[in-house]
Design brief:
Length: 138
Amino acid sequence: MEKITLSRYVIESPEEGLYEVRDTKTNVFVTFKEKQFKETQEWYFPADPAIQRPITMNRIADKLEAWLRLNHPEIVSEPEKFILKRSDDGKTIILERPSQGLVITFPESTGKVTASAQIRAASMWLKNMADNWDTVDF
């Protein structure tokens, strides 16, 4: 009998505080400890040459992680703490994550959709540059 899966992603907890999330289409999976995804994630990719390409692996991992964060944020990590405010002169929108020292600013005229798209583009660029992180002259 064939197994029928209604969701592309399946989450299981083989033991208390440990989770495994599988992409049923590609058979890629990640394991992690509860509320410590970033610190403890371990990825497993099948030995399929079509999946082993770095760009493909990143795309699959990004989609799986996005699904996990959207649908099960309570097991991924402690809630993210962000602050959104206006500068004192009112001309700049400031997004802060104090625990990480992150500050992103936008002109006041930047819309929410445009700001989100710019942050996403910068995030993708940074992720793709991670291989060069140690060579960047800060």
